[in-house]
Each structure stands twice: as C-alpha cells, then as structure tokens.
Amino acid sequence: MDSILVKGNGPLNGTIPIAGAKNACLTLMPATLLSEEPLTLTNAPRLSDIKTMTALLQSLGAEVSSLQGGQVLALSSHDIYNQKADYDIVRKMRASILVLGPLLARFGHAVVSLPGGCAIGARPVDLHLRALEAMGAELELKDGYVHASAPGGLKGGTFEFPIVSVGATENALMAATLAKGTTVLKNAAREPEIVDLAHCLQKMGAQIEGEGTSTITIQGVDRLSGATHPVVTDRIELGTYMLAPAFTGGEVELLGGRIDLVGAFCEKLDAAGIEVTETKKGLKVARRGDRVKAVDVVTEPFPGFPTDLQAQMMALLCTAEGTSVLEEKIFENRFMHAPELIRMGANIEVHGGTATVHGVEHLRGAPVMATDLRASVSLILAGLAAEGETIVSRVYHLDRGYERVEEKLRACGAQIERIEG
Ligand code: EPZ
Questions:
Q1: What is this structure's pTM?
Q2: To test the ligand 1 pocket, which listed residue (114, 194, 308, 328) has its Cβ within 8 A of the most ligand atoms?
Q3: Which of 62, 72, 189, 414 could form an SS bridge with 169, CB 3.0 to 4.6 Å?
C-alpha cells in the first residue's frame, strides 16, 4: 500500500486545476442504463471509484470507454444482458447501489447487493428502497441482495424523505424518469450533484422540475435518448484545496472553482480569516494573517456546511487561535481523523457527534493512518503546516476521490511525494 510523505514547509503559491465531481460522475454513469442510446460524459475525474463504477456497468453488459486519458467517458447500455450487481463489486463502493433505480425503471427487475457499511457509518439504504416502493416496486431482501421487480413498470408516486439523502434522491430521480405518470419527491437533497444529474437527464429527454429545491417533480416518459454532458466541478475537491493556503500561507488560485458551489463553506472561511476572491479563471484564496481564527461548524445537507469538508476544516482549526466546536450531524462516526491529528499534537476532545478543538501553535509531523477518503486528505493538509515529516499510510482511500494530489500540491511548492508500498 502506498504512503504519502509530506514535509512542513513554507507558503504555497500557484494554481490548482479542479476536476469534475466524483459524486456527480458516480450518479451520471448509471444514468446510461436508462437509455439504449450513447451517453458521453466530459470533464470526468480520473479516480479509482470511476474505474469501479466502470467495471460494475460493464458486468451488466454496458460498454464504457475511457477516452482522452479518462477525461471523457463514452457509455452505451444498448445491450444490457445482466441485471444483477454482484457483492464483490458493490462492497468496494457504496455508490454501486445507484444502478438499482435505473435497472428497475428500464427492465422492470434488478438484483443488487446491499452495499454494507463503511468506516464512517452503517450507511443503510432503506430510503432508496422506500422511495422505489412508493413508485410501485416490489422488493425482497434475500442473502444480502435486494431483489426488486416492477411488473408492468414503475408508476408515478409521491414520497417524502424523512431525512435528506443524496443517494436515495438520485436513485428515485433516475427511476422516476421512466415511471408511468408523475412522481413528486419531497425533502429531496439539493446538492449540486443532484442538479447536475437532473440537467443530464433533461438532455436525455426526462421531464424534471424543481431540481436544487426540496421538491422535485418528474413526469415519466416512455424512453430516454442519449446525450453529451460535462460533469460539474467537484465542490469537495475545490473546498479541500481552498484550505491548503490557509494552512501554510501564500496564495493559490483554484482553476474552475465556482463560488456558488461552496457558499456556506466560504462563510466559515471568511470568519476564520481566509480571503476568497472570484477571478476570471476561478477562485483565489489567501490567509489574511499568520494564524486562522477559531470558528464553530455544523455539518448539514446542501446548502449547509458539507460533511465531506468537515475533516479538512478540523485539521485547519487544530492550529487556530481559540477553541472551535464541530458538530457532525450527517454521519455517526466521522471523527476518525481526530486521533490521528492528536498524534500530531492537536488538542481535540470528541464526545459523540461533537468535537471540541483547542487551537495549538503548531502541529508536529508524525506517521499517521488514513481511515477514509476525506480523513486522508485532511492529514496531508495538516502535514503541510506541521513541523517535520508526516507519513500518511493507506492512501488507497485518497486515490478514490482525489486525482494526483501530490502533483497538484507540489506544483504550488509543497514538499510531498508518494512512496510506493
Ligand atoms: C453521498 O453519500 C456522498 N457519496 C457522500 O460522499 C456524502 O458524504 C453524502 O452524500 C452526504 O452528502 C456519493 O455521492 C457517492 P446520504 P450518500 O444518503 O448518498 C442516512 C465522499 O466522501 N441514510 O445523503 O450515501 C445515512 O446513513 C462520500 O465523497 C439512511 O439512513 O449519503 C447518512 O447518515 C462520503 N438511509 C445520511 O442519511 C438511506 O437509505 C445522509 O446520507 C440513505 C441514507
């Protein structure tokens, strides 16, 4: 397993290109199953999760070609001969559950392995299933698989999500495009990735209104055509790299960055003493003084503070002036980066879903272990500002969601290298 070696060093200066969103691409790719015509995705990120979704779709019979070094994905689901998503692929990536809605909508049946939990929580899929049942799906859980059928096809229905769920909204949205009649999704997720999926489906001929609000209305159609669609910019990669100069000083421009994707996050950066300026090419970020100020953070569904940026923000606040309180309200176990940061000298108390961070002057480099995708990158950022060397192990987590981290940071002056393991 590879590791990343980071040395604390001076300010970062330069530009970082922001890729297409992993979490948009992972729901846009299964949308190919809704149509027998080709779907082309441009601005696709080059990540291991994309390769996993590719393998899953190919196991169903879809053709997926990766062009232009992986930045263009050409997909075709003309000849789907298998409607079963096997555990050995699904267990690698939870987003695999997103083939359920499209398979059911187009073929009237699907067998998809339950994804199982992961490090940050149990990650149930009950809301995915209940939303599909509201459209007439008949579901049976057997041997760790969901056996879904919709004899005569899905029918439009109304479903109100008891809690906001990004994946369940995506599954239901895709399924509803081919259901007979009108579907209304209430308390739907409003993330930019949902809006991006809706825009792609509309290009394919879907009748969708209200994307980006809490109520999405879909008028089913008989069939969908193909489309070409650019994957929306990755707001989590953007937010992650916006924090880099806040750790080290200097000024970094994030190419392709859009302020509308990181609204609530930018408000917290401003309060912490980090300047964000819109430029023609994206967003420019710099720390106002020598040290950021403590701020309190509560993670919420979009447009609130993203849970996927909580670990990175906690790492920054470890050396803030004052005490910060972070509340993780989306996942039940998303503070696993805290013990690793404490190894680097941070002063953090965790009680349930609340972490209290007492700012210290400096962190010290140490060998640390990545436990999940976003925790991995928070440890690398902490290493950029720590005194001495930090070795982050298990970086396979990192490669799932961040393309070429060491290249992007090294281009701005970071002393960082990958150690093949
Ligand atoms: C998506 O996961 C993202 N993944 C996550 O990003 C992100 O953290 C999360 O949304 C929240 O924004 C992808 O898009 C591939 P949820 P998802 O359904 O859809 C509970 C990353 O780092 N829940 O919005 O799985 C669930 O347990 C990853 O890129 C149910 O109870 O998240 C959680 O507590 C991590 N039943 C809450 O809802 C369900 O059926 C929100 O989960 C579904 C979810």
A1: 0.97
A2: 308
A3: 189
